[in-house]
Amino acid sequence: MVNFANPQLFYLLAGVVVLGLLYVNMRYRRKKRIARFGNPKILSGLMPDVSKYLPNVKIVVALLALVSMVFMLARPRTRGVATEEEMEGIEVMIAVDVSNSMLASSTDDPKGVSRLNRAKQVLNSLLGKLDNDRVGLIVFAGDAFTQLPLTPDFVSAKLYLNEISTGMVENQGTSIGSAIEVAMNSFSGANDVERAIIVITDAEDQVGDAQSMAAAAHSEGIEVDVIGLGSGKGAQIPLDRTYTNWLKDETGQVVTTYLNEQLAHEIAESGGGVYINGASASALNELVKRLDEIKKSNLGKVNYTANDEQFPVFAWIALILVMIDCILSNRKIGFLRKYNFFSRGGAAVLMAALAVGAQAQTLKPYGQPVEDTSVRKERRLIRQGNEEFEKGHYSEAEILYRRALNENPASEVAQFNQALAQLHLSADNAESNAELLANAAGVMQKLMAEGQNREVAEWSAYNMGNLAFNQQNLQGALEGYKQALRKNPANEKARENMRFVQKQMENQDQNQDQNQDQNQDQNQDQNQDQNQQDQQQDQQNQQDQNKNKDDQKEQQQQQNMSSQNRDQILNAVEKKDAAARARAAQQNGKGERGGQRQRGRNW
User: Fold this and answer.
1) pTM for the whole thing?
2) All domains of the chain, ordered by start, with CATH?
């Protein structure tokens, strides 16, 4: 019988249903939006890569993965085989001191781990090492109470242990005797079962006679072991985690608590057990060793039925479905594009044409021969020719196709296959087999334009595009691929080759533009050089003219200077003549002073 650990999680399946409805609504709205642009059957030819069925497959796989995850989280289980086992062990009652002094540090550091937290750490480790024993839990301060009766369920014991706090007992103090007495009354009472009491305390502020109670327990065959927690140097009791507020007494003095190891030793000796310091690293090992020395007794038979978890099965299913969803795409699968699984005749295999994609560097102008389903003898010859073609025996294949044409001269399939074989034969030596190439090209051209077989016309146009490309006729190649796509928009080979040719044509246009730009740049550079030369010549002429003007000006100045010198010389001569005449006149006057005075005359 199957049951679930978390059946409430099945409400999550409603979310899966909502996601499925949202997907259906999205597909419906998508269909309406496409219909706004035109006939969906015609538009589907413009989207050859979009699959009609894969989106539905993907959403189904994704929803199944979510359903598997919900089942996995609900944890399906089946009832296992009932098992009966005999348990051998001892009964152990653990008494934990929860007085306020247990809040103090268990070490010399005032901010160290508290004694109560240290006790929980030790007991948690102890429960992990006990095997087939029964344990119980008692808390005590001024009074003692049973927190957990004897049980073999260590998981429950750890849960109760972690919930222990100092507020569980209102009456403060440390009554170890009361804890031992409650523990003695909590055992099963079986005579053949060994028993032990473990007391964890700081043994301070003791109330009552703990030694006498320990001795009484020992007299009944119960061993009393004591684990002491605290520091002999003393520690204050913090009231919060800030370690600034400390517990004070009635006089306002801060209370300091100490580990009373002497009392703890005396209680352990009276109870026939051992004292262990809880701060010691080997405290746990010492206690486990001591308990192992106690003789194991038969605790009876235990019947239980373990449930077998089945969630890993759904986890693996979910993982596989998620991986499938990641692999699937909304586009058609490449190697299945040539199959039509939904035609009336079953899976009709299209010709696997050998074409190079948009990332290729060259194109091969050959495909595969087409199958025929006409006359039996013709069909047999074409099938044999196809077998030879696949082996690379193109000459033998061409002969078989020719014999098929003899049986049915109107067979377009035989004509195409023969032309295809001739293309392969002419590829080895194009010059010597130019006639074969021309004949094959003529047949393909005719089939492309007048062929009744749509598949033959499609691949004839495709190969005409490849032939044009080999002849460096990019425009002709582009037209051939376009013709093939008009015959069949889903022909990915023709589409990839068409993109490749378009890219080649774009590169040529770019190269031509670059050459024109370079020529324009050169012409501009030449014009600039000529302009610079003309400017330099004009500057030289201007300089020559300026120099001639300067020479003329200098000559004029020299002439002006010569005229001035000449005038100066004439003036000097005239002055000299005038001076001579003046001296002559003076001499004549002196000669006439002794005789008659003569009248002067003008010169």
Assistant:
1) 0.41
2) 2-82+314-332 (no CATH), 91-295 (3.40.50.410), 344-504 (1.25.40.10)
